């Protein structure tokens, strides 16, 4: 009897402290390439489970365009709260929540979209939206989202905004309290959140795309405030400009920050969550384009990257190759593992695109855009080389879709116990 009580206490403790805010993902089929019109079959919700494959729940009544600016937010136990396509915010029933319309409402928004109709170009967003709990405010969340504009048709500017969602309204279906509030804008790359060492607050790292500067913001019960600029003194102006369309990643341990830059390299920093100090730790250099002139735009080579659950390995891919790197003992080329090349199947190229780790500690990789409706999976991402167990076409999605370029907030970092920032009791 005592053992049974201890078991149920453990289960209750796990669910109360799990912080499974990323337990649901969303996707949809976004393009009919035969007539270039939107042909959304359904919104697909991925729900993760610890001991079995993700559950795909397709809602055929919803015809919502989902692409890079999409994100789903769950409560701490892993139940879906809301999701966004970068245009509106929807509750778990697929209805727009109160005041949840007209995100990123710009001239581009008005010119490219009519309800449920894709009438030209891609929606001008940068990377995926993402949400974090609002520090110190119960049932309240901050949704970050962005859009991009062109100046004279040449210069590309990004605008990072935030919206505040209170899920205590309307019987738990939520209400937007404030929306489209500017955080920062300009030549900026993918914003990356990391939990503060006090376990409550958050930092936001936003690299500039054409400099070695990252803008740091502090998120606390007082709101979102600029904190400082971090300058990488070990790099030239152009060698750390971040590629803005793909997400940078925080390791599950909270120890490392990985950033893909414009010189076809990944720069890994050791990071202090108390004061957000960063120290350059590793530079993983790629030479896919044989372009050593960092003053010229080299094009994207890396489509996605993700750390292993134990934070010792980093996976990265270009469109037809998947690599694994030993973070702690990087010594090229012996530390580089080419896991697999993409292959051809019935005339369709099965390419790697985005990758992200689920709450089941598996890494999921989709193919580029609408090439097929399968997802590859790395079953044992802590294992080196082929032992990581990459399986092609492991899961079939209900709809063809690109996996959103997820920033993958690490919600379970918690406090840095006995550190100088362990100040909240």
Account of the protein in words:
The protein is mainly beta and 425 residues long. The chain has 2 helices and 30 strands. It has helices at residues 2-17, 107-112, and strands at residues 24-28, 43-47, 55-59, 71-74, 80-84, 89-91, 113-114, 117-118, 130-133, 140-151, 155-166, 175-186, 192-195, 202-207, 213-220, 223-231, 249-250, 256-260, 265-271, 278-285, 304-307, 313-318, 321-326, 336-341, 344-345, 348-349, 355-357, 363-366, 374-378, 390-396. It has a 4-stranded antiparallel sheet, with no helix packed on it. A hairpin with a 5-residue loop joins strand 17 (249-250) and strand 18. The longest helix is centred in the first third of the chain and has 16 residues, at 2-17. The two termini are 34 Å apart. 43% of the residues are buried. Mean pLDDT is 78; it is low at 1-16, 30-36, 116-122 and 288-300.
Short description:
The chain is mostly beta strands. It is built from two helices and 30 strands.
Task: Provide the descriptors you would attach to this structure in a database record.
single chain; 425 residues; mainly beta; four-stranded antiparallel beta sheet; 2 helices; 30 strands; 5% helix; globular; disordered N terminus
Q: Which shape, going by the Cα principal axes?
A: globular
**Radius of gyration of CA atoms, rounded to a whole number:** 21 Å
Percent helix, as a range, is: under 10%
Main-sheet strand order equals 9-10-11-12
Category from helices, strands and their pairing? mainly beta
Using DSSP, what is the number of strands? 30
């Amino acid at each position: 009897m005592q053992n049974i009580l201890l078991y149920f206490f453990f289960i209750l403790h796990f669910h109360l402290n799990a912080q499974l805010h990323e337990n649901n993902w969303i996707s949809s089929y976004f393009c009919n390439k035969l007539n270039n019109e939107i042909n959304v079959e359904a919104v697909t919700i991925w729900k993760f489970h610890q001991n079995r494959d993700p559950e795909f729940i397709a809602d055929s009544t919803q015809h919502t365009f989902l692409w890079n600016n999409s994100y789903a937010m769950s409560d701490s136990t892993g139940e879906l709260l809301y999701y966004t396509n970068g245009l509106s915010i929807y509750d778990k029933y697929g209805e727009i929540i109160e005041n949840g319309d007209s995100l990123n409402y710009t001239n581009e928004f008005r010119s490219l979209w009519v309800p449920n109709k894709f009438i030209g170009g891609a929606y001008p967003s940068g990377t995926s939206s993402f949400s974090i709990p609002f520090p110190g405010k119960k049932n309240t969340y901050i949704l970050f989202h962005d859009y991009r504009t062109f100046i004279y048709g040449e210069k590309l500017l990004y605008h990072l905004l935030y919206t505040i969602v209170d899920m205590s309204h309307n019987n738990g279906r939520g209400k937007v309290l404030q929306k489209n509030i500017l955080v920062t804008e300009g030549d900026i790359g993918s914003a990356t959140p990391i939990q503060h060492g006090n376990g409550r607050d958050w930092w936001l790292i936003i690299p500039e795309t054409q400099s070695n500067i990252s803008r740091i913001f502090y998120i606390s019960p007082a709101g979102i405030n600029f904190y400082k600029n971090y300058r990488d003194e070990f790099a030239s102006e152009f060698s750390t400009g971040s590629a803005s369309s793909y997400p940078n990643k925080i390791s599950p341990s909270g120890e490392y920050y990985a950033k893909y830059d414009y010189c076809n390299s990944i720069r890994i920093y050791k990071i202090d969550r108390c004061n957000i100090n960063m120290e350059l730790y590793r530079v993983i250099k790629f030479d896919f384009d044989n372009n050593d002139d960092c003053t010229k735009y080299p094009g994207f080579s890396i489509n996605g990257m993700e750390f292993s659950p134990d934070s010792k390995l980093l996976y990265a891919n270009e469109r037809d190759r998947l690599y694994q790197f030993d973070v702690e003992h990087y010594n090229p080329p012996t530390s580089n593992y080419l896991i697999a090349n993409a292959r051809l199947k019935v005339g369709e190229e099965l390419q790697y695109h985005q990758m992200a780790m689920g709450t089941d500690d598996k890494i999921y990789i989709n193919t580029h855009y609408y090439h097929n409706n399968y997802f590859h999976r790395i079953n044992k991402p802590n294992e080196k080389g082929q032992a990581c167990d990459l399986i092609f076409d492991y899961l079939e999605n209900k709809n063809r879709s690109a996996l959103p370029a997820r920033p993958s907030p690490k919600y379970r970092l918690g406090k840095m116990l006995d550190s100088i920032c362990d100040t909240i009791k």
